[in-house]
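check this:
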Amino acid sequence: MTVPERPIIIAVIGGDSPPPSAAAQAEEVGRRLAERGAVVVCGGRRGVMEAVCRGAKSAGGVTIGVMPGDDPRAANDWVDYPVMTGMSYARNVIVVKSGRAVIAVDGSYGTLSEIAHALAEGAPVIGLDTWDLTSGSGTALEITRADSPADAVEKALAAARERNERESQTAPR
């Protein structure tokens, strides 16, 4: 029996009150990810999260919302699978660990924490009009910049595949 290959899951992070331009970018990111067969995981609420889910659903995609509370009704209308954590912002770790790569669109402090968690875990982060970060010594942190939603999706999928390949070579058998 052959085991079917799992779809790539891409985490998309961003604020819950984005400017209209960021919401439009997130919606296009979601649509393009779904068209490429990727599953979207996000924080499941409004703003960038709602826009990316709406975009993914418009292309027949699958969406997962990692929710801060315990009520699945708090998920936006485009979340297929709400995951209740009851963990408030601590759920940010789960969001970024669930994706093989992370796309950050715009964002506020919650997005900043998700970027930090992703980088600490070695997850590739693709930035689309989001935070510019440097270490305490002034070294730029490893956020791959994208200049459009299409570029962000291509870079995220390539980074996710590279990560899968790299980790499969070092995984215990």
The chain has one domain: 9-166. Helices lie at 20-35, 48-58, 91-98, 109-121, 149-170. The chain is about 40% helix and 20% strand. Strands lie at 9-14, 39-42, 63-67, 81-84, 101-105, 125-128, 143-145.
